[in-house]
Amino acid sequence: MDIPPELPRTPVSRRGLLRWLAVGTAFAAISGEEILRRSLTGETRLVTPAAVVGTPPAGAAGPMGPGGGHGAAPPGGTGAPGAGPPEQPAPAPTVDQGGRRWSDRAGWGGGPPGPRSAVRITDKVLLDTDAEVGSLLVEPGGSLTFAADRTLTLAAAGNVEIRGTLALAPDGDHTHTLRFPGVDEKRFKGDGMTVVDTDVGLWVTGAGYLRLDGAAKTAWVRADRDLKAGDTVVNLAAPPAGWLPGDELAVTPTGPPDQDGFAARYDLVTLRSVSGTTVTLETPLKHPHPRVAAGGGVTVGAELLNLTRSVRVEGTAKGRAHVHLTSSRRADVRHAALRWVGPRADTKETWRGPDGTAPVTAPVLGRYGLHFHRLGDATRGTVVEGVVVRDAGSHAFVPHASHGITFRSCVSHETWEDAYWWDGPLDTRTPQQPSDDIVYESCVASRTLLEPNPRAYRLTGFNLGAGTGGKALDCVAVGVQGANGASGFEWPENSEGVWTFQRCLAHNNLQDGIFVWLNAQRHHVVTEFAAYHNGGWGIEHGAYLNDFDYTASVLYGNAGGGVALHALGRDKGSVFDGLLIDAAGLSDFAVSTARHELAGESVTFSRTRFTGYRRAGVAFRAGADGKPDDVLLLDCEFGGNELWLDPEAGAPKNILLRRTGSTEVLKVRRAGEEGDAQPKWNAAAAPVPTLAGQSRPVQVPALRLKDAAAPTTRVGR
């Protein structure tokens, strides 16, 4: 977990001081000194020309909400792993279009609030006109609903805190926007469950209810053929529901990793028209996006990500806001676009960027795109569907110590830091706090980055952290930048979670498709995974000891090769069974071993086809300063020279080979040792009669990746 340096404590300026505005009540001007005193002491009194007529609800801590630090107990449940779900959550509330109208001057005691007003709502209010406020607090029992039949924008200079209800749910022809136009990221403090005056964004606290419910649309679809530079017409593999002229699309890179900029060749285009599976673009594509035939059933085109939604929550390119939920009531967040969120703080370091010297920045702790913060079981049953987080300075989707949340057909695009993530351990000796029953279904992490890139060590699209019952299904990681260990999907150390991981795809990432650096206590299964055109390995498997099964997967055209093997087995050993590893002429080896820190159980490659490599199918390169190789190659098929023993490696503990169609088992030793010389292998080999067994045929995968995001619906539909 990155902890930002302490931010400068900027004094509160008098220009920024706001008057409190009573709903349905006359109000009077108050001096700047008096408001400053109340802001700092937490008072939220309603004032008329005559007298104080109201006080905060019992138990409230003033305008900035209840206290509780970053490590406070979750308000919605125990949060204990394995505690099990509580009673089923109540259905989504009915949000009507009643209440007094924002534009009704009489309802505000003579005039609606303005851009320097601190608005407090205790009754039902219907926003029926564009509005600007200094800040907004919706109290328990109060609600602010945007009129469904109008395109509306509410701009807030300060925080919007929801203890009651906030609903943005336009009909199919209109757009609702909550905007924070004047965020000063330098004032952010971060951390905790308490609303912080300087940390401007959308806060849902207490028992507040948030509904962001835009028009449903297909989050992403793949092209069904090669796309060439200059194309303006794209044929899709499936008809895109809900796409409209004017929608903004990101077309993902697909080219091979020996091309310059292979991980960054995106096209950002505007949709002109849609007819069935054919879309026409306003401007031609700048880059080619070839369709890739990886084998094993995997033939896929570029993903076209739709980044436009009819509900929007956004800061600006110069001032990023955030969405922070600590409410004990389940939120409904669907088909919303969160843009310019995730603030960053300057550090004392600088780096030379493309536009000159720039500060090295750090994320502000706890201020992310969509952040469910320590809610325990209160979030069970929550569905976040069709949501886009883009142009974010920090993590996009964060279910931190919050259980039972399903993220379906969500998109992170142009996000700094790990896109799908929750808080990691403070150090390598401390286990991560778990989030249980988290589901990522049909989600995309696209162009995840950090600057300067050499510092983006272990950057990932999906950080598969601690917890039970996690699922990652039909997800895509593309365009992840970063340095050593960066990847589309990561299993990090000290953060062991058991995940159902199936039919996921990693392509055109600067480094690896999958990166495992986990000393696991449990057994893990990765099945029907595909990785193509990554700049490192399809799978880089470490760290020291673990038991993983990789089955029915395709690794194609990755610059490093198919598998880099660091870890040996813990109890039963790891198994790579029924894979197609095709180096596509881009790497010397399909599989290569690396330094083994600890002695462990054997790793087995079985019923696998190795092809497309330049020197050998499997290279044994574990350094002599580590533990020796212990690898079984059973019933595999090779498209050329089978093995190569690095002369710099130590003597192997155990390398056994049984060719497909043969019952003979060969034990492989270093060149010059006992056995028949195998010059192409730089090794010797001799039969091991006692290990002879029945050969099995190669099992070529037959993957069927989905060509479009899972369908989504609006709340209650």
UniProtKB/TrEMBL annotation:
Superkingdom of the organism of origin: Bacteria
Entry keyword S-adenosyl-L-methionine: no
Gene3D superfamilies: Single-stranded right-handed beta-helix, Pectin lyase-like (2.160.20.10)
Biased composition (Gly residues): 62-82
Disordered: region residues: 54-118
Pro residues bias (residue ranges): 83-92
Keywords of the record: Signal
InterPro entries membership: Fibrocystin (IPR052387), Pectin_lyas_fold (IPR012334), Pectin_lyase_fold/virulence (IPR011050)
PANTHER family: FIBROCYSTIN-L ISOFORM 2 PRECURSOR-RELATED, POLYCYSTIC KIDNEY AND HEPATIC DISEASE 1 (AUTOSOMAL RECESSIVE)-LIKE 1
Protein known as: G8 domain-containing protein
Origin species: Kitasatospora misakiensis
